[in-house]
């Protein structure tokens, strides 16, 4: 297999395929860690504004939550992109789908980031 | 044993839509699904159309859906079906020409697109004979040399059902066979063909292909190795 390395350019679908694996590996830690902490150790019924304020007092947890949001959502959107790829047959239309999904991801992630950076403020 | 055979029938020249014909056939448990079809064609209905040539699992002519799974009719023994109800249908995702015969041309077009032949324009070795290769170098692609182009893998793949533009497992297997051949020099060209949405990246690791292959080629693994070559 000698001449294989001539073509080094990565294709979009190749990058998306790899991103699926990398975000999947990150999610093993981020998503399971999240479930373990919030649902098993703390429990959903004990999560209130005070708890969130306490947790977000630590910037490490804020970053954790931002990473979880960004990567879980990116992974999910990339998965939706794969599913839609089964139904969208023209490359031109697929490009539009890709852009639309990227925009939705960006907007929701930025909204989440704004909430996380804003933090918890006492209600007036 | 008495077998209740249900066969997909469709003749686009006269039929408006496909139908299923039923035949009760007397057969030995050690006989094959192909034998059932031969019996029906010889004694019940001479118009039944199916492909077969070698009848010994070598030519790849008689891939079809048997009780919902892709297989060569000449390799499936009745006793291994664990039932006396046998349903035989054409491969999915391809145009039916008649009954169990499908149009294989789109499949072969994908096969041709990966240049399934040795490419090496370098001068011949000193002695003007063979380009030598170590047993280890040969072992690297041995598994993918076993393909008989029956299309059982490609037509079992959900990505292919979704789009006939997907190059499909069989074409990737045959690309693998040359990409990993130390004597070949066109690996980069084949990889460029496969480095597309409808190339190797449309594979979703469903493993249907590996399960369908009558030659037990580890197809999903071969596809992963082609992805690996692209990621290097
Ligand atoms: C432990 C965490 C996770 C891991 C390791 C993981 C891994 C993967 C991998 C490797 C694929 C690609 C499969 C293939 O095409 O061969 C995939 C697909 C997918 N994942 Fe995840 N994932 C995880 C969590 C999630 C979560 C939390 C979501 C939802 C937000 C999600 C949604 C999807 C979707 C929609 C697909 C596409 C399915 C398809 O192609 O039909 N995954 N995942
Ligand atoms: S007839 Fe040749 S493979 Fe079955």
UniProtKB/TrEMBL annotation, chain B:
Top-rank taxon, per record: Bacteria
4Fe-4S ferredoxin-type domain sequence ranges: 137-167
Keywords annotated in UniProt: 2Fe-2S, 3Fe-4S, 4Fe-4S, Iron, Iron-sulfur, Metal-binding, Oxidoreductase, Tricarboxylic acid cycle
Top-level enzyme category: oxidoreductase
Annotated GO MF terms: 2 iron, 2 sulfur cluster binding; 3 iron, 4 sulfur cluster binding; 4 iron, 4 sulfur cluster binding; electron transfer activity; metal ion binding; succinate dehydrogenase (quinone) activity
Enzyme Commission identifier(s): 1.3.5.1
SUPFAM superfamilies: 2Fe-2S ferredoxin-like, alpha-helical ferredoxin
Alphabetical GO biological process terms: respiratory electron transport chain; tricarboxylic acid cycle
Cofactor section: [4Fe-4S] cluster; [3Fe-4S] cluster; [2Fe-2S] cluster
Family note: Belongs to the succinate dehydrogenase/fumarate reductase iron-sulfur protein family.
NCBIfam families in the cross-refs: dhsB, PRK05950.1
PANTHER family: SUCCINATE DEHYDROGENASE [UBIQUINONE] IRON-SULFUR SUBUNIT, MITOCHONDRIAL (PTHR11921:SF29), SUCCINATE DEHYDROGENASE IRON-SULFUR PROTEIN (PTHR11921)
Protein name: succinate dehydrogenase
Organism annotation: Levilinea saccharolytica
Upper lineage: Bacteria, Bacillati, Chloroflexota, Anaerolineae, Anaerolineales
């Amino acid at each position: 297999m000698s001449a294989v390395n001539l073509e080094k350019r990565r294709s979009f679908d190749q990058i998306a395929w790899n991103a699926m694996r990398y975000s999947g590996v990150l999610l093993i830690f981020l998503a399971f860690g999240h479930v373990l902490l919030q649902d098993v150790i703390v429990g959903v019924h004990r999560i209130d504004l005070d708890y969130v304020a306490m947790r977000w007092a630590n910037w490490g947890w804020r970053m954790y939550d931002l990473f979880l949001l960004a990567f879980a959502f990116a992974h999910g959107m990339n998965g939706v992109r794969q599913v839609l790829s089964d139904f969208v047959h023209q490359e031109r239309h697929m490009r539009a789908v890709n852009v639309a999904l990227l925009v939705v991801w960006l907007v929701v992630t930025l909204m989440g980031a704004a909430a996380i950076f804003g933090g918890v403020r006492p209600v007036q | 044993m008495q077998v209740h055979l249900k066969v997909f029938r469709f003749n686009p020249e006269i039929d408006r839509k496909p139908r299923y014909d039923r035949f009760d056939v007397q057969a030995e448990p050690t006989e094959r699904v192909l034998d059932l079809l031969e019996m029906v064609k010889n004694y019940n209905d001479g118009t039944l159309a199916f492909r077969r040539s070698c009848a010994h699992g070598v030519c790849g002519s008689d891939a079809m859906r048997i009780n919902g799974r892709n297989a060569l009719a000449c390799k499936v023994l009745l006793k291994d079906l664990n039932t006396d109800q046998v349903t035989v249908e054409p491969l999915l995702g391809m145009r039916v020409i008649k009954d169990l015969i499908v149009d294989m041309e789109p499949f072969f077009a994908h096969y041709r697109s990966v240049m399934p032949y040795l490419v090496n324009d370098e001068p011949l070795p000193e002695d003007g004979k063979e380009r030598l290769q170590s047993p280890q170098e040969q072992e690297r692609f041995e598994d993918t040399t076993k393909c008989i182009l029956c299309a059982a893998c490609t037509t079992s793949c959900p990505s292919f059902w979704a789009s006939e533009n997907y190059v499909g497992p069989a074409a990737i297997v045959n690309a693998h066979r040359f990409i990993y051949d130390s004597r070949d020099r066109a690996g980069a060209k084949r990889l460029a063909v496969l480095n597309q949405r409808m190339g190797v990246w449309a594979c979703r690791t469903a493993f249907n292909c590996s399960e369908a292959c009558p030659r037990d080629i580890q197809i999903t693994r071969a596809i992963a190795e082609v992805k690996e070559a692209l990621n290097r």
